[in-house]
Structures are given as C-alpha cells and as structure tokens.
Amino acid sequence: MKVLxxxxxxxxxxxxxxxxxxQQVDKVYFAPGNPGVLYTPKGKRGLIERVPIRDFGKIVDFxxxxxVDIVDVGSENPLEEGLIDLLNEKGIRTxxxxxxxxxxxxxxxxxxxxxxxxxxxxPEYQVFEDPDQARKYVRNIGYQVVVKANGLAAxxxxxxxxxVAQAExxxxxxxxxxxxxxxxxxxxxxxxKYGTEISFFAYLDGEHVMPLKMFAQDxxxxxxxxxxxxIKQFGGNLNTGGTGCYCPHKLVSPWLVNRIIKEIVNPxxxxxxxxLGWQYKGVLYFGLNLDPYxxxxxxxxxxRHGDPEWEVLARKLSTDLFEIATSVWEGKLDQITQxxxxxxxxxxxxxxxxxxxxxxxxxxYPGRYGKGxxxxxxxxxxxxxxxxxxxxxxxxxxxxxxxxxRVLHVVAGNPTLxxxxxxxxxxxxxxxxxxxxxxxxxxxxxxxxxGL
Length: 452
What we know:
Layout: E1 2-7, H1 10-20, E2 27-32, H2 41-44, E3 48-50, H3 56-66, E4 70-73, H4 76-80, H5 83-89, E5 94-95, H6 103-106, H7 108-118, E6 125-128, H8 131-141, E7 145-149, E8 158-160, H9 164-176, E9 187-191, E10 196-205, E11 209-211, E12 217-221, H10 228-233, E13 239-247, H11 254-275, E14 281-290, E15 296-302, H12 309-316, H13 321-330, E16 344-352, E17 355-356, E18 361-362, E19 374-376, E20 386-389, E21 392-395, E22 399-402, E23 406-414, H14 417-428, E24 432-435, E25 441-442, E26 444-445
C-alpha cells in the first residue's frame, strides 16, 4: 500500500514514520515534507520519500498518478484550506475533516457555545470583537484570565495572564497589533484554571468514535520555571508551541479515561454527528484541565493530532496506523483493537537559542532566531532513539541546517520514566547547532525539566 502524509513539521514526519512501520505499507510519500527525513533510516532506504509539492492540485494529480491508497493531512492550515475536499472529489481516501468541519478549531467561540449548549464542562468565557469592551471586561471580572485569538494561530493563540495589566496587553497584542493576523479579529476571554493539563485524542469515522485510551503531558512554556533570567528577558509568561512531552501521563488510569470519554468525548462526538449532522472522519484533540477538586474542563478542541503529543503517543501505540486510517475512511473503527506497549516515552525539543547575527544578536525562540546553522552530531545518536525533524532545511555546502524556531524532536523510550528522560537528555546532548557567526559555538537550546 502507498500512503501520502501532507505536512512538513515534526508531527507530520512522525505520522510518515508510523505509517512506515505498517507491514501493509511499502511506500510513504511525505509532501511537501522536509529534508530531515533523508537523514533517517526510513528515508535513507526510500521507505519514506519526500515529495516537495505544496500545490493542492498537483498533490491530487500526484496521488492519482502514483495510486496512493490513503492521504493523512496532519496540520490545521491545509485542512482549513480544503485539501481533504479536493482529494475526496477525485475519489481519494483521506484521514482528516472536511473544510467545513475545521470550524471546531478555527472558531473558538462557535465551539465554546456548542459545548455549553450540550452540557460539556468548560471554564467561564466571554467573546469580544471590540478591544475596548474586552479591556473593560478584564478590569471588572476580578479573576485571572486566558486571552485567546478566536481563529487558527498554529497552536500559539492563547495567552495566559497573571493580572489585569497582562490581560490588557494580550488584548492589545491580539486585537490591535494583530500578532496572529485576522485570527485576532475576535477574542475569547476565559477564566484561568489551575490544575493538570491533559491532552486527549479520539479518532472519528463518521459513525463511531475510538478514543485513544492513553494520554500525554505537553509542556507549553518556552523556558523552565527556574530560568528566571530568560523569562524576564522575554517579558514574563511565555506560552509557545510545545517544547516537550512525556507519555503515559502520570494521571493515566482506567477510571480517568472512562470519565473523560463519558463526560467529554461522547457528548461532543454525539453533537458533531447528530446535532451538526457532520460525517467527520479524522482526529479530534481535547485540551483538558483536571483541577484539584477533580473537576474536568475543556479549554480547547483541535481537529488534528497534537505536536509534540503525537510524537510520544505514536511511539507507544502498537496498533497498525494504516489499519486505523483505513477504518476511519471505511467507518469500521469499532473493529480496531488498541494495543499499547509498556514503555515510557519522553520528547525533548531542540530549539534555536541565542545566536550571533550579521549585526547584533538573535534572542532565539520564541523571539527572533537565527537560521542556517549546521546541525551536527546526528550520527552520534544511539540506535532506538527517534529523531523527528521540524524546522530544518538543506544547504548545498553545510548539509542539514536549522530553518525554524523548533528544529527537531528527540524521543526516547524506556520501561521507566526516569530511564526515558535520562536517555533523551543523554542523546540530545550529542547534537549541536553550529553558530557560523560565533566561531562555531553551539546555539541549540532545550528545556531541562521535561518529564519531571
């Protein structure tokens, strides 16, 4: 069988890698992909082949020409731009929601209203299109809030605020400075919750739902809590794309899994199928909070796998992903048996740190970061460690170089969480980013507390 994964980041590389593990799959096309794949075992032997095509029409033609059996679209933007719709029009089987259904992620206010209507627990919230009204609200509300861009923002559209001043700044940045573009035309201001974050996923096939009975802990802040100097330098509370992850989450238990399915997943999926009348085929992500009083709340729903959650869940999942994908398309998820291995997995993300620029210095991710730094030490990484590439490019002279803020994922497995942590950190230390303006100094940065 032939599979095409559309995307270019770490989550998409991980999807391609997981399909490559299937006994039924002998070719995975990765489009537009990234050149890091060529530096992995599956890439070197041609099991995963990079197809540098972005144009949707050309993707459809490529799938028809090569006889691709199923396409998995990993990221929210091509889903919102209608790639699934175009593929389905030509009879190509897919994993991922139609354009109309992406509204669950791209319109927070719509989803929040739906959840309240069907009685799914979520924090108190208000929606604003006028920044002055939003500022008035946070001055009067009396409790801490999270300010969220209403539309897509690459998983970075929520700003967690400690006080009114931070909330007002968040409103200004999102609605007036437009740091997330038109996604900030409207904001959702939500009560800030305290507790433990849970990333929970489910596959839908248009008729059934298959909740993954395993969940992960994502680490959002850009810096470790004790890195006060960096936090201060970047201006306080920094929520970014995920910077690391571990699985299984410390709270995984049959009791909690059943609660999440009963209180949150089933009512939401029932509303999608029966209230909205959608034949949704793909993944749903539930961002949850469990507070100290055991109350569960939904703080977001997304229409795809999490990044970096999928990088650890995929390693732990022993069920054939190609079988899951075909069942999603054929409406047969009720026939799939979930199998999870007994390992712990830790994902530590290598980011662009402080580097010298042609003039001055780059602060590094999540601020302005340098590019084109040679990636060294990949050949020193131990066998059994999975490297998933995200922000990389290929230079004719230097080879593989950095291109984004989050550059690569180092994922290690072990029978204990401590063992997986030690293994991940031992191997990420073998990799470096060569700062060409600073005598080849290492400008890679990563968090030290993932999994603690």
